[in-house]
Amino acid sequence: MDPNLQYWQSNGQSFLSRLRLWFKILDPISVLSSQAEIEQARALLQNEGHTQTKEKVANAWLLSLSSVHPDTGGLISPVFRSQVFLPISAPLVVASLIPHKGIKPALFWQFLLQTYCAGFNHANRNATATKDNKTSMKQSILIVGTVAYSTFAGALPQIILKRFRLFGAVAETFSRSLLPIPLSACLAAFSVVVVRSEEADNGIRVFDSNGNAIGVSMAAGSKAIKETALSRAALFGTTAAVPTLLLALLKRAKFVQRNPMIIAPVRHISTAIIFGLMIPVSFSLFPQFGKIKKESLEEEFQSLDSNEELFYHRGL
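Request: output the structure for the sequence above.
Response:
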C-alpha cells in the first residue's frame, strides 16, 4: 500500500485530526517544490524516516500527501493539487456568483469554473480502475459533457432573467439570491458523480486492516463517489448560502442603505473567505482512507473470515 494511504489510515480517522492535517497540507507554498524534492521526500519516508528529525519527517509527509497520487504513486499536476485549489478556484467562484449584466459573462465564468472543477475531480480521483483506450475515450466524453451541461445550468439564473424577461423583484430575488444556493451544491456533486463514474463501473481496490489489497469492489467505488460528492456539495452550497444571508442582514443596516456601493465588495470578500474556510472542512468531512462493512460489498468478499471492516481510498 502507498505510504500516503498508510498515513491516512493511522492519522486521519477523526474529523479534527483530518482538519488539522488539511490546514497544513493546503499551504500553497509547497506547490513550488521541485520533482526532485518530492522524490527525495518520498525516499525519506520509505527508507530513512527513522534516522531523520521529526520536523523533517513531518515536512516530508506534507509534501508527499499534497503532491503524490496515492493510487498511482505519480505526481499530481501542480494545477490540480489540493494546495492550489483555493488560489485558482476562489476567483472563479466569486466571478460565477456575482450578478452579471448579460448571459455571455455568466457562461464564460461558469465554463472556467466547471472546467477546473472537472479537471480537479479527475486528477484526484481513485485511479485504481483498469484503463484502456475505450475507457479513456468514454471518460473524456463524460468530462466534456459534464462541463457543457454544468456551464449552461450554472448560468441558468441569468438566462431566466434575460430570456424570459422576469424583472420583478420577487423573480430577481429568486434568480440572483435563492436559486444559486441549491444549484451550486447540485452542480458540484454532479461533476464528481459523472467525472468519477468509472470507479462505480469498474470498482476500486479494498484493503484489510493490515493494508493488504484483497480485491476490487464496485460498492466501495460507489461509496467513495457518494462521500466526495456530498463533501463538494457542502463546500459550494455553503459558499453560495452564507454571503447571501450576510448581505440580506447588511441591507437592513442604515449605514449600508446610505452607502449601497459597499454591497459589492462585501459580497466578493465574504464569498472568498467562506470558500477558503470551507475547503479544509469539506475535505475533512469523510476519511481519505474510508471504512466499509464486509456485508456492504459484493458476494466474493463475504467469505473473508477475519475482516468485518475493509478500507478504500476515497479520493478527493
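Residues 28 and 84 are 6 Å apart (CA to CA).
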